[in-house]
Design goal:
The longest helix is centred in the N-terminal third of the chain and has 36 residues. α11 links the parallel β14 and β15. The chain has three domains: about 35 residues; about 100 residues, Immunoglobulin-like (Sandwich); about 350 residues, TIM Barrel, CATH 3.20.20.80. By secondary structure, it is an alpha/beta fold. A nine-stranded mixed sheet has the order 24-23-26-21-20-19-3-22-25, covered by helices on one side.
Length: about 500
Amino acid sequence: MTVGHEMQRSWDLLLAVLLLLTILGSLFNIGATLLYTQSASILSTGTITYDPPISVAIDTSKVAGLNNLSLGFMLDFDWKTWRNSYVLRTLAQDANFKLVRLFDYRRNDPALMPVEYWNETTKTGTFNWTNVDTLVQGIFEIGAEPLICLGRTRNDSSISNYIPSGMAFNPETLLPYPESYAAYATEWVKHFKAIGRPVRFYEIFNEPHVYFGWSANYTKLGFFKDVWNVVARAMRAINRNILISFDFITAKRVLDYWIQNGDDVDYIDSHKYDANAVPGYDDDEILRRAETLRFEEDYIFYGFKMAREKWFGARGKLLPVMISESNLNAAYENGTDPRIQQVIGAVRTALVLRKAVLNDVSYHVYYRFSSSVQDSPLGCYGFGMVNSDNNQPWYPYYVQQLIGSNLGIGCRIISTTSSSEDIRPLAWINMGKLSVLLICRIDQSREVCLQGVSGRFNLFRIDGSVSFLTPRVQTGFFDSAKPLIVNGYTVVLLQAQV
């Protein structure tokens, strides 16, 4: 073969390689274009920018309102574990929880019901307050106060499981006799008054809709009202400073009826679960309901603001609002919703708390503080925000710890807007420190640019990059002159001195 032929062959080979590179380059450009249209473009430097960037504008000179929200949690079957655990009590204190809700009717081991036996004839009982007193003492020691929920209504004779042993119930109404239950309830008020414990909050009967129905059967609602009025009057006769309500007062038929027939309630009270079945709603619907359910009017319930306005118009009292039970999903029969402990559970919690701040809610009570993995069906972890098997918090605890330990009563809420519904912001000033809460409510990466602020912020991040089995708050610094990249469901708190 001649030298000329060799040169020609090398030239042909070079042209073939160049052609192949051109084809591959075209395919790469097509792929890059597709990627760009979805959310990002790959630049020649290898960096990624997110399209479109989301602008969060913060105007520290404009106060949108004052915070009135305090956080709380429920102790149900886990009350004894919490009471006896220094670690769990410290976790509660670190998050600055201010309200702890308790049931009186857990009579099985461990026993919280203080009545050992009730004499229906004399309307007196034998009381042992040891468990109640040690638990209430632990609650006050962490800087919180208790909310005592007395009793629960049922539609059959199982009501006997939720009232003191020995107490009778009316077979016609399936409720305890008013004077008898009032005598029992007043013993709680008398006891705390005698030992000098300032226990203020009470509920008379948990979830009464189980008795009178979601549509509020007026006959049963009347029976319920008759008992409630007698009990509330007796309790207030002992201590005028206590606050009493029940958790279904925002239902339209109930509130309208109560305004006409019931004694005063002292706060607007409601439960808030964003689903009632597993698998139930998809993520998008769960997060939509996190921001709307009970906050906005629907065909059964008034929204919180409307309920307050109706009560104020009729009774002349502007009542505080309490969400006395709250979680992502109420279902439990076949296991709880696994999303409760996952990062979407953190996002849901953050969205609810943000909405509560903006709607002047006074208390949000998370159901519940802890649960055991060992006692839960495979793949489920109960309702808890803390794993009681190892005292390890799950994501929702860390959200409440970030907010509860930084957002105090009376903090100035700063005017803050977002250019996209994908990012929900909330900003406030507390003791000269600006806090900016950013919630990414979509499971896709987004670029966030802050407007109206400058300088370096301390950064606290909760996202799915850390396993929910061993979650933690990621910490660092953020330069506000640069964009913040969030990778899917995320809760971020930024802080700087102002």
